[in-house]
């Protein structure tokens, strides 16, 4: 994202100043701009709200709570287990960071990067 543009998966670029909306009723996907926010909804799964600056808010549908895993936690309502870092040396493939330091938070973020998708934060 930069200068009012959002790039989706390295491909389609949305100009937030002119984008009005898009939907695919077949899969229940709705993307719309409301004032300065971009709102993405996949019915029955989640809603993502982006404020064109740095804030992204994700709201899970009730049926998805506790059934997800990733950068935004697992949605089980327990914030103490949300920092699950990918760790191949762990039997589960994940390691929970308790009271993580800034360095551990950076490592946590890097652990979820899809190889080749973005530069390192270092």
What does this structure look like?
This protein has 122 residues and is mainly β. 8% of the residues lie in helices and 31% in strands. The protein is built from one helix and nine strands. It has one helix spanning 102-111; strands at residues 5-7, 13-15, 21-24, 29-34, 37-42, 46-50, 56-60, 84-86, 94-96. The strands form three sheets. Strands 3-4-5-6-7 form a five-stranded antiparallel β-sheet, with no helix packed on it. The chain has a two-stranded antiparallel ribbon with strand order 1-2. A two-stranded antiparallel ribbon has the order 8-9. The relative contact order is 0.09.
**Average predicted local confidence, pLDDT:** 81
**Cα gyration radius (Å):** 16 Å
Q: Estimate the helix proportion, in percent.
A: under 10%
Based on Cα principal axes, name the global outline.
Answer: globular
Q: State the strand order across the main sheet.
A: 3-4-5-6-7
Structural class of the secondary structure composition? mainly beta
Number of strand elements: 9
Low-confidence residue ranges: none
Count up the helices: 1
Strand content: 25-35%
Largest sheet entry: 5 strands, antiparallel
**What oligomeric state do these chains adopt?**
single chain
SSE order: EEEEEEEEEH
Secondary-structure map:
Elements: E1 5-7, E2 13-15, E3 21-24, E4 29-34, E5 37-42, E6 46-50, E7 56-60, E8 84-86, E9 94-96, H1 102-111
Concise account of the structure shown:
This protein has 122 residues and is mainly β. The protein is 8% helix and 31% strand. The longest helix is centred in the C-terminal third of the chain and has 10 residues, at 102-111.
